[in-house]
Design brief:
Layout: H1 3-16, H2 18-22, E1 30-36, H3 40-53, E2 57-63, H4 66-79, E3 86-88, H5 92-100, E4 126-127, E5 132-139, E6 162-165, H6 171-181, H7 187-196, E7 200-202, H8 205-213, E8 219-223, H9 224-232, E9 237-240, E10 247-249, E11 253-255, H10 262-273, H11 275-283, H12 312-330
Parallel strand pairs: 1-2, 1-3, 6-7, 6-8
Antiparallel strand pairs: 3-11, 4-11, 5-8, 5-9, 5-10
Helix pairs in contact: 1-11, 5-12, 6-12, 10-11
């Protein structure tokens, strides 16, 4: 059986068990508007799986990078007409800002049993849905050494061969740059060294993968699942979790206070957090938040990956400065 067929079979198997575990006592219905930064194909598959559990919900999706999603939403807030019921975006920093401005609805009864306390807001206004680590992808056919840690990207073997996603577009990149720049051993001098070594910034993680997979770059900074999925499809790439600590986002989900269909919104959030939703995340190639649902093939256990952490509140305070300084170095 080919790898694509095996992946498809895993997705179908995950979807088949959804009605047994994910359906709420009272089925939701009506139109549900979701704004998201999830890749288009992954989001389409997710909606199809959710609809297996909740067939009476009509899901309408607006999809772009986190920065563009939030720019659209900010304009809607200013006009007094926010469209989404649910946000599913890359980073908790953005969610912390929305919570602080009173935009998110609390759900005290949310099904968070079994989830790590730091995976969701203590007031249950936003909830992580998976673990998406940022590390290093490299082209295995490029004749360059495998990277081991972040400093390798500033070394001579990587000169002029590194691409990274811009925090002006990507929420995961905002977390990545904010986390590394807050580290005493790296800080902004590290990004200055990357620039001096010829590293360049592209719009998002998809552009990073394309550049490395096609050989236009040898190394890239990227979220893990994209690199692993590409390798499974035969792309000449491999992924490394840096020994000195990957950065990570949890792709949080939240219901807006202005949601027109809060029942369907809570059903969507609850499904993402359920065993069925978490197993579907694994089938899509993501690391789950629930340790008992397994991990994607070829991945280490989540507790075997060193993850750097900075509080969402601290990252939120520095996010504007992060984007400003990055743009000054690498352009906008």
């Amino acid at each position: 059986m080919s790898k694509p067929v095996m992946i498809a079979a895993a997705l179908l198997a995950a979807m088949a068990c959804l009605p047994l575990t994910a359906r709420a006592a009272d089925a939701a219905s009506g139109r549900l508007v979701v704004y998201t930064s999830t890749p288009a194909k992954a989001m389409a598959d997710l909606v199809a799986a959710f609809n297996t559990a909740e067939p009476d919900v009509e899901v309408s999706v607006f999809r772009s990078g986190t920065t563009e999603v939030m720019a659209k939403l900010a304009a809607e807030f200013a006009a007094g007409a926010p469209e989404p019921d649910v946000l599913l975006i890359a980073d908790s920093v953005t969610m912390a800002g929305l919570k602080a401005s009173g935009r998110l609805a609390a759900w005290p009864e949310a099904p968070v049993d079994g989830l790590a306390p730091d995976s969701h807001d203590p007031d249950n206004t936003w909830f992580g849905t998976k673990i998406i680590a940022t590390g290093i992808v490299w082209n295995t056919a490029a004749g360059v050494p495998a990277p081991g840690g972040w400093q390798d990207l500033a070394g001579p073997a990587a000169a002029g061969r590194v691409v990274m996603p811009s925090p002006l577009y990507s929420g995961a990149a905002t977390i990545h740059v904010g986390t590394l720049s807050a580290d005493e051993a790296l800080g902004w001098p590290y990004f200055e060294a990357l620039k001096a070594n010829g590293a360049s910034a592209v719009q998002g993680n998809g552009a990073v993968l394309d550049a490395v997979a096609t050989g236009r770059a040898s190394y890239g900074v990227i979220v893990d699942f994209m690199a692993f999925n590409a390798a499974a499809k035969g792309s000449p790439v491999a992924f490394v979790y840096p020994a000195d600590g990957a950065t990570a986002v949890t792709e949080p989900v939240a219901v807006l206070k202005t949601a027109r269909n809060p029942e369907a919104a809570r059903a969507f959030v609850g499904w993402l957090l359920s065993d069925a939703g978490q197993r579907f995340a694994v089938a899509q190639g993501y690391m789950p938040l629930r340790a008992d649902v397994g991990t994607p093939p070829g991945r280490p256990a989540a507790d075997a990956v060193a993850i750097r952490t900075v509080s969402p509140e601290q990252l939120a305070r520095t996010s504007d400065e992060t984007r400003r300084r990055f743009a000054a170095l690498f352009g906008g």
